[in-house]
Structure to design on (308 residues):
């Protein structure tokens, strides 16, 4: 492939980016013994937590804004290429089993699609029109929210998707591991995870990837808390689809409502497998249909339903 093929954005020098700079602590990485190497990685992997602390305001704003979009019927999309895109797909895939959300509510869009999960197709990240095309194929609309993920912040695929989303009036969130001063991104909210240079220069699957995964954990969990998928610190919208999840549901009923397993199993059956409804019935003495109406009136928030 000729260098001119990257003229849309992939060919410009990125050596000035924080994520691309060499780390002086690992200047002789190949000469360290294995124990020294491991301890150096352990020391450096404290940086993602510090980066998250610095991005707390952006995470807070994103959680509240995304939750509001989803309350109004919108959806959440993650968009990225390479490691960044794979992390978005992973987080989206965990939402249905954890929070009993429909698969279309949170979607991960990866440059190259499903094959890129297993085999690198990094060249596609340089296609600025690719992000837009992939969002259009999913029926992305102005009611939705988009989180564009790019460790170095320059990925044309992500920039194209964010620009398209903004043109529709959708909520846009940029997540990157470089400062906004280094790389502006078209977005309403920014989450900048400043993890510093990697021990293996430019390998953003390391600290940058760790910080991104941690940020996505906070983001999706926070949104689901705001949507009423959590009561206390329990996953009350968990789908009872196998023996492990049934056991978890029964333990939730035992811990929060003081129910024996047999009693909990019976109530769970009467509630159609809904832990949230079963808890409401156990704590109020309501009948299932009454409980369903109360949950609907409370917007699915169990704590609010208990106060009605």
């Amino acid at each position: 492939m000729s260098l001119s093929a990257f003229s849309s954005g992939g060919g410009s020098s990125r050596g000035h980016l924080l994520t691309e700079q060499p780390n002086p602590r690992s200047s002789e990485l190949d000469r360290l013994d294995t124990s020294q190497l491991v301890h150096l990685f352990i020391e450096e992997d404290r940086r993602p937590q510090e980066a998250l602390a610095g991005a707390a305001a952006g995470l807070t704003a994103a959680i509240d804004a995304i939750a509001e979009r989803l309350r109004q019927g919108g959806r959440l999309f993650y968009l990225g290429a390479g490691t960044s895109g794979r992390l978005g797909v992973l987080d989206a895939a965990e939402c249905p089993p954890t929070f009993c959300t429909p698969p279309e509510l949170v979607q991960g869009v990866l440059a190259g699609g499903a094959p890129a999960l297993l085999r690198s197709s990094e060249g596609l990240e340089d296609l600025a029109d690719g992000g837009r095309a992939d969002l259009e194929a999913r029926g992305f609309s102005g009611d939705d929210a988009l989180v564009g993920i790019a460790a170095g912040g320059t990925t044309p695929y992500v920039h194209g998707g964010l620009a398209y989303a903004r043109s529709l009036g959708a909520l846009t969130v940029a997540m990157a591991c470089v400062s906004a001063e280094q790389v502006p991104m078209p977005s309403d909210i920014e989450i900048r995870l400043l993890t510093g240079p990697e021990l293996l220069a430019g390998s953003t699957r390391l600290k940058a990837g760790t910080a991104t995964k941690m940020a996505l954990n906070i983001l999706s969990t926070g949104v689901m808390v705001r949507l009423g998928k959590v009561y206390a610190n329990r996953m009350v919208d968990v789908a009872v689809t196998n023996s492990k999840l049934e056991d978890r549901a029964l333990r939730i009923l035992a811990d929060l409502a003081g129910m024996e397993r047999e009693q909990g199993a019976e109530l769970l059956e009467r509630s159609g497998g809904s832990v949230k409804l079963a808890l409401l019935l156990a704590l109020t003495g309501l009948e299932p249909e009454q409980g369903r109406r109360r949950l609907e009136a409370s917007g699915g928030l169990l704590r609010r339903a208990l106060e009605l």
Observations:
- The domain at 243-307 is CATH 1.10.8.1080 (Helicase, Ruva Protein; domain 3).
- The chain has two domains: 41-226, 243-307.
- The radius of gyration is 22 Å.
